[in-house]
Give the backbone structure.
Amino acid sequence: MSTPADPRPLAGEPLPLDLVNTRWTDDDGAHDLLESPGGLAIWLSSAGLAETVPQSQETLDALVTTREALFGLLQPESINPRRDRELLNETLRHGCFRRSLGEHGSERKVETDSPGWLAAWQAAEHYLRLLEDNPSRIRKCANPECPLRFYDVSKAGGRRWCSMATCGNRAKSRSHYARNHRG
Ligand SMILES: [Zn+2]
């Protein structure tokens, strides 16, 4: 059984941002991958979690709650940062890394109290790592109407758009139009 293609304009960002990017807007309006039929399977497959995470209601609920927390925390002016932090910490309390020494060196394994929290916990934990790494590289697409987030890994750190093919091009043609229709 093969999973249908990921319909989102942007995929492949670090897990917490990829989770937030399950909601996007285009000319047809607002979309939510997690609310669409079969959407959870598509997301798990896209995020490389299809083999390890069960496709269950518990997984979906945990992801939706964690997405809410991440979305709030990623707002430039979080409306209720304390609530969002608490929500994220609630997700984090469902799991931990178990460290051990294996044949080839150090190993770590994710352990959650229930398999349904596995994906959400990994997204929350990865968000902490992005904050430790370089929080200024967590950005929102420069198109004000586009809610997508990305982690800028370019050397100069000048990435502005979720994708050049959509928002980047639109802005380019808008400024081209403005230049040619001035006065
Ligand atoms: Zn965009």
Summary: The mean pLDDT is 93. The longest strand covers residues 95-102.
